[in-house]
Structure formats: C-alpha cells, structure tokens
Write a structure and sequence with these properties.
elongated, formyl-coa transferase, domain 3, 16 helices, 3-stranded antiparallel beta sheet, 6-stranded parallel beta sheet, 2 domains
Length: 417
C-alpha cells in the first residue's frame, strides 16, 4: 500500500449490498480510491457482522460480539445506518444517489422498487448513475425471483459435481470449494462491468443498469470444463486433485507428507524426469507427450509416486525449483501466511480503528489481506479500517447538508442509527 495517488478518487459509490458478492465488488473499488458509503440497517447492520465464530478479539485475546467475516470485504468504506423501509430513509438514499456515480445492490428482483429506489426511479433523478444489481439468478427467467446463495449456485452450476474425490472412492461425494467462489467471482465481474460502464459514460454521458447473476458467473467460471462439455458432449467428473487434461498435475506423496507438482508441458516433464533419476520417461512412447501421459495416467503416476516418496517435500522443492518445474508445499492457511514470498509481498495489512469504533467494538486493529491489484503508479490505498456499524452516519449526512436538529429528528424517529 502506498501514499501515491489512487486510481479512482473521483468516483462516489453508494453501497446497498450485503454479505459477500456486492461488498467484495465495492471493496475493490474502495481499495482503488473510490469513496464508498455502505448503507446498513440500524442496530443490525450487514448480516456478516454476526456470522461467527470466528469473532474479532479484544486486546486481551477475548472474543467480542463482532464477527471477523465482515472485515474481509468492507475496508476503506464509510458506514451509515439508514432504515430504507421508512419514507425519510428512502428520501436520504435518493439524495445520496443524486450525488453518486455508482450504486451497487443485491436485493431480490423488484425489492427496491417498493421503495422507489430501483434503477428506473434513480436513473430519472441521476441519468449518469451506474446501477449494478447482483442477484442469484438475474433479472429475468423462471428463477429470477428466487433468493440465491453461493452454495446453492455451486451445486446448480455443476461446480460441486467436479469438486472432490472421484465417484466410488472413500468420501467421493460432491464438495463445495473452500470459499464462496461464485460470490467472490461475482464481485470481481461486477467491478469489471462497472468500470466498463464508467468508460462508456465518458462517451455517452449516461449510466446504465448492470444485471449481475451468481448463476451466470457460476456457469462462466466452469471455464475449460464447460468448454470440454459443450464441444464434446462428455460430462466432466470429479478427479480429486488431478487435472483432466494434464499429467502429472496433482498432489504426490513425499517422505514427510505431500507436495504439489504442476507439469504443464513436455519440457517441464523432461526436466522433472531427469531430476527424479528417470530420464527415460521423457522418451518413453507412453509418456513423451502430454496427450500420451493423460492416456497412460495410472501407469505413470504409480511410477512417479515410487520416486517422490524417496525425498522430503523441501528436498523436492529444492531439486525442482532451479529446473523451472512448478512444485510446492500443500500449506495450511497458517503456513501460507508464514511463507517467505507472502511476507515479501506484504500481503498482510493492519489497520487501526478510529477511537469511536474501537470503543464500540472493543477492537483496536484489524488485519486483512492486501489487495492484489498492484498498479504501480496508482496503487491501492488504505485509508479506513472496516467501519463499525453507523460509524460515519453523522459525517455523511452532514455532507448532505443536514444540521444537528435534522440529525436529532432522524435518530429519534429511528430513520438512522
């Protein structure tokens, strides 16, 4: 992170999203310098504020009431607590939308129309507004009104059917990916679409509605697996840690555990074969090309496993690294954060909470993973820790021109928290 100029300080984002996909998108924009105002329900806030354990810990190492999940996708934002079910709350959102460049929401289809906060209503007030709707199944189609969650989409898209141990092996049932993959990718795709819409607005002067669907994203990220099915009709199946099109590309046993070997071409295989003391593998008709290796997978992997068991994981890494053969340890999360390269890239960042937020939460500092968007001239910024619920309500409303009396009225009426 740097004190250099950020990429998007000219953009103002109104964030009506919650949980992960929408907040992941808006955190990306915030990391790039956009002013993101996160709107939350008074007293309750974003659902993820309560999704624990694990919980944030105070200075004495005791759990607080604040879940760590929320901190993963809400740094660099300002939090304002508004009850949009109340007409005065709706009026505040409309006023904020008039001064915003981008709005991100993940209500059910038609949900915000009840409040006059849908795209058509806000476009009439601010034709330049880019309005991104993130839903489970999109704005149309037979499932449009269904709620959608990452786990559901991983199952429906076929992602779970290709994740896990092979059918018939112990534990060989469909498995979800270890993080909410479709939510995260939906956030990344949404951010890309928003920035494209910003570019279009430079030419036309107009914003537009972006229809972002978790199901669409789930199908798209099947990538080569989808391409294989669509062009051959062959339904892909679970293969554990092996690859359908590359061999060896998997975990392998070592003298002290296991390692990951990722051979992507014939040259790498020849160099691995030499390092393993079996140079003849590279010229064996069964293994000379990747296609041959895939066809004779079982025979080859059995031979390789005999050799990999002769050395420790660290010894294999040392042996193969200078030969440019991709391999590495299979780390726990703790081991990954202790890795020398992770430390060198400064991938852990710490942010101090504002005094009022620290008093509210009992937490003084929050750690998170640095943005991977390494723009050298306009790098990501760190200017706010993940906010406490409603931490910036008065600040944002004062920017709208409300005085102390108006703020007191809104609080007394339960419109803001």
């Amino acid at each position: 992170m740097s004190d250099q100029a950020a990429a998007l300080p000219h953009l103002r984002v109104l964030d009506l999203s919650r949980v992960l996909a929408g907040p992941w998108c808006t955190q990306m924009l915030a990391d790039l310098g956009a002013d993101v105002v996160k709107v939350e329900r008074p007293k309750v806030g974003d659902d993820t504020r309560h999704w624990g354990p694990p919980f944030l810990q105070d200075a004495d190492g005791h759990d607080t009431a604040h879940a760590s999940y929320n901190t993963a996708c809400n740094r660099n934002k300002r939090s304002i607590a508004i009850d949009i079910a109340k007409p005065e709350g709706q009026a505040l959102i409309r006023q904020m939308a008039q001064g915003s460049d981008i709005l991100v929401e993940n209500f059910k289809v038609g949900g915000l129309a009840h409040y006059g906060l849908d795209y058509a209503s806000l476009h009439a007030l601010n034709p330049r507004l880019i309005y991104c709707s993130v839903t489970g199944f999109g704005q149309d189609g037979p499932y449009a009104e269904r709620a959608g969650y990452d786990l559901m989409v991983q199952a429906m898209s076929g992602m779970m059917s290709i994740t896990g141990k092979p059918e018939g092996s112990p534990g060989g049932t469909p498995q979800r990916v270890g993080v909410a993959l479709t939510d995260l990718f939906a956030g990344v795709y949404a951010c890309s679409a928003i920035l494209a819409a910003v570019e279009v607005r430079h030419r036309t002067g107009l914003g537009q509605h972006i229809d972002m669907s978790l199901l669409d994203v789930g199908m798209a990220i099947l990538a080569n697996q989808a391409a294989g099915f669509l062009n051959t009709g062959a339904n892909p199946t679970r293969q554990g840690n092996t690859h359908p099109s590359l061999v060896p590309y998997q975990d392998l046993p070592t003298a002290d555990g296991a390692m990951l070997l990722a051979v992507g071409n014939d040259g790498q295989f020849a160099r691995f074969s030499e390092a393993a003391g079996q140079p003849q593998w590279a010229t064996d008709a069964r293994f000379a090309t990747n296609t041959d290796r895939v066809r004779h997978r079982d025979v080859l992997v059995t031979l390789i496993e005999t050799e990999t068991r002769k050395h420790t994981t660290a010894e294999w890494i040392a042996l193969l690294e200078h030969r440019a053969v991709p391999c590495g340890p299979i780390n726990t999360v703790a081991q990954a954060f202790d890795d020398a390269q992770v430390k060198a890239r400064q991938l852990v960042v710490h942010q101090a909470l504002a005094p009022a937020a620290a008093a509210q939460t009992g937490v003084h500092s929050i750690a998170s993973v640095a943005s991977p968007l390494r723009l050298l001239d306009t790098p990501p910024v760190l200017h706010r820790a993940p906010p406490a619920l409603g931490e910036h309500t008065e600040e944002v409303l004062r920017d709208l021109g409300l005085d102390a009396a108006a703020l007191a009225h809104l609080r007394a009426a339960g419109v803001v928290g």
